[in-house]
Amino acid sequence: MKEQEIVPWDVKRILLGQTPAAFLLEVLVRTAVVYVALLVVVRLLGKRMSGQITILEMGVMLSLGAIVSVPFLTPDRGIVLGVLLLVAILALQHGVSWWGTRSPKVEMLSQGRATPLVRDGVMLLDELERAAISREQLFATLRGKQVEHLGQVTRVYLEACGLFSVLRAQEPRPGLAVVCPSDLALFEHDHSQSVCSTCGNLGDRAAPKGAPCGRCGRREWLAAVSGRKGSADGNTREQEG
Q1: Domain(s) of CATH 3.30.240.20: residues in the chain
Q2: CA 80 to CA 71: how far, in whole Å?
């Protein structure tokens, strides 16, 4: 039986590929030219491209990555083609934005719209599910906005660009705590006012114990949080009937 011939690794092919070594210098020139063109196009696309981006802007950014990869590394593709594609993306993005400013329907289709997640201290569970936002994600966002319980907010919106907007209540009422369970001892609880542990709906004081929530139908209730101990948000606040 013939012994198999051991083929040594082609180190040159692994390191340089099938292109000549001179192409390494060409790659540096290609990268510099396309990189400068990319910076110019992104600058012309506007400040939004460097912040929280919309769906349309996300599509543009992904397209930019696909476009610049070809003139960077492919020897049989010229730089001009990549630059022309960048200019085409720039024109497309500006064209859709211009059209959107003149047509609300186009703006809604291309940008999306804000989704309400909390209304008057009560979570909108259907909207949370539709937006694929968990309660813990919502609570983490509220904690980042210095919110301690849902009674302190009137509206929470998930904006089209993915940001959360929180509108505080002028006169907070008791609500469901958004802090970690281990920190609940730091807050005053209104034991005369129950709150649904699922959606944050305040219970009817006249309702029997264990009655279903009027918003979500769950039967798990907690004592509502009225504020931090020792603060003006404590039980000294006049409770809403």
Answers
A1: 115-228
A2: 8
